[in-house]
Specification:
Order of helices and strands: EEHEHHEHHEHEHEHEHHHH
Distance between the termini: 23 Å
Largest sheet: 6 strands, parallel
Number of strands: 8
Strand order of the largest sheet: 4-3-8-7-5-6
Structural class: alpha/beta
Helix content: 40-55%
Radius of gyration: 18 Å
Number of helices: 12
């Protein structure tokens, strides 16, 4: 429901406004379904999933994968999802924080370097008038142990959080989301990548017009060439190649029907 497959991954085929409203309505209904994992998935995640079948299966188990970049949206539209719009993780985070500022919906931040999650809590109070952040946590850079995951889940449950936000990086944040959900009773757990750094002004977001033409990756590469050049040197050509192959197969299959 509400998805179109791009490189084998179901991407949300509606708008950012729709995604925000659906989350808000679910939580306010007072009976949110058990542990809804969500991700904001762009070219990096889609290519990684092609090369790592276990990660592809993980994303297919998620409740929802928001299309983080325009290339995924373009492919989705070509496959018939005419109402599909880009839903970047940082924009979705901002929209939810604004939309729930006056609601009885609590948030928990998990991610970033030491102190970033606490800075984000203050940024949300100042920028978005949202004072419903009930907890923060800085995860270790290594995989968390079972004991640590249980302790984190207990802290989230004790805080009364309805939505847990993960700001690490792909694929670590998606794997952490699924592992954490094993020990949570009920919550949205949403992986939003660089949202923590963007909204604490540690990194600069690309102007919207750059994102709308599918070149946010280039903007980020120019901002952080040393950290990102290896990633995009692989991701960009592979994303194009994989989609050309899939689209050729898609068109050929349609002709033979």
């Amino acid at each position: 429901m509400n998805s179109v497959h791009v490189l084998g991954i179901p991407l949300y085929n509606k708008t950012l406004v729709d995604a925000v409203q659906e989350l808000r309505q679910d939580v306010l209904a007072g009976n949110p379904p058990l542990n809804r994992c969500m991700s904001a998935t762009g070219g990096h995640g889609l290519v990684y999933a092609q090369r790592n079948p276990d990660f592809a299966l993980l994303l297919n188990r998620f409740y929802r994968n928001l299309p983080d970049g325009m290339p995924g949206v373009w492919i989705g539209r070509l496959k018939g999802a005419k109402n599909m719009r880009r839903c970047p993780g940082p924009d979705f985070f901002e929209a939810v924080m604004k939309a729930t500022a006056s609601d009885n919906i609590n948030h928990f931040f998990c991610g970033g370097r030491e102190g970033v999650a606490q800075e984000l809590k203050e940024a949300c109070r100042v920028k978005f008038a949202n004072q419903h952040v009930v907890g923060v946590y800085t995860p270790p850079f290594r995989p968390m142990t079972t004991t640590e995951l249980q302790a984190l889940a207990a802290a989230i449950e004790h805080s009364g959080a309805d939505v847990v936000w993960l700001g690490i990086s792909t694929p670590k944040q998606e794997m952490l989301a699924e592992e954490l959900c094993k020990y949570l009773k009920t919550s949205y757990v949403i992986a939003v990548g660089a949202a923590f750094d963007f909204h604490t002004d540690r990194a600069k977001k690309a102007p919207k017009w750059i994102g709308s033409i599918g070149l946010e990756w280039l903007y980020r590469l120019l901002m952080e060439p040393r950290r990102l050049y290896k990633r995009y040197a692989v991701v960009v050509p592979l994303f194009l190649w994989y989609n050309l192959c899939e689209f050729y197969y898609f068109c050929t299959s349609e002709k033979t029907k």
